[in-house]
TrEMBL record:
Transmembrane segments: 90-116
Database matches in CDD domains: NAT_SF (cd04301)
Keyword terms, alphabetized: Acyltransferase, Cytoplasm, Endoplasmic reticulum, Membrane, Microsome, Mitochondrion, Transferase, Transmembrane, Transmembrane helix
Protein's UniProt keywords contain Iron: no
Gene Ontology annotations for the cellular component aspect, listed alphabetically: endoplasmic reticulum membrane; mitochondrial membrane
Family to which the UniProt record says this protein belongs: Belongs to the NAT8 family.
Function of the protein: Catalyzes the synthesis of N-acetylaspartate acid (NAA) from L-aspartate and acetyl-CoA. Promotes dopamine uptake by regulating TNF-alpha expression. Attenuates methamphetamine-induced inhibition of dopamine uptake.
Protein's cellular compartments: Cytoplasm; Endoplasmic reticulum membrane; Microsome membrane; Mitochondrion membrane
Organism the protein comes from: Hemibagrus wyckioides
Name under which the protein is recorded: N-acetylaspartate synthetase
Main subcellular location: cytoplasm
Residue ranges annotated for the N-acetyltransferase domain, each copy included: 117-260
Pfam families assigned to the protein according to its UniProt record, in alphabetical order: Acetyltransf_1
Amino acid sequence: MVCETKIVADDPDAIAGNKKDSLIVSSSQMWTSTSDSFERKDVKQREQVLIRDFERGDNAEVRRIFTEGIMERIPNTAFRGLKQQTHTQFIYAVLTVMCFVMTKSFMLTCCTPFILMGARYYYSRRVILNYLDCALHTDMADIEAYYMKPTGSCFWVAVLDGQVVGIVAAQGREDDNTVELRRMSVDSRFRGKGIAKALGRRVLEFAMLNNYSAVVLGTTAVKMAAHKLYESLGFQKVGETENYTLPGMSRSLMERLFFQIRYSRYRLQLHEE
């Protein structure tokens, strides 16, 4: 069961306007801090952030931010992701024991976990680079044609002190009257300033303006910070898929052994249909 979530703007002009309007993120459009000192600090940071529509001249910076964000998933998936995969941990432990039984070599047995981790990094890199290549040759190859021209879709950039520091897209789905939040990424040098949350709020406002019934998203993020961000925006997890197949995967035996990724689905219901 999906709970209904209402998005209320303190500023009556915060949700008004055309989908192509620029939006300066202020404290009235974001969350309220429980501490006055932190609130003053956050307001000052958010007043400097401009969320505006994608322009052709942004393309190089957008691709850079997107690429860097995807590349971060290589070590996260290879190493941090293993903590979530108890079944894989058991297999690797068995392989380590088998190595000792077959070779009777303590040195080789001690090296086995490092070899397994090296294999995980290699296959994570290969799969994620293939995924990145697919993205850069599909929607991210022509953002204007894919997101800006179709009705019900849009692409925004976050600008801080004249520099593009974050991106997010919204893609409308007419079949179920939902909009999908896609391609959210923030330059690693500018995280912790509320930029990702500002981008997320922009998608929610866009969905309300265009009378979508819900906002949905899917993520393979390993870091809990990403999941907490979606939950703070009002999203609820509605499903999870283990051993998800990314675009570009071959699903070979070695790939299945050394690359596993979890896909989580979130939904924020704006109003009942």
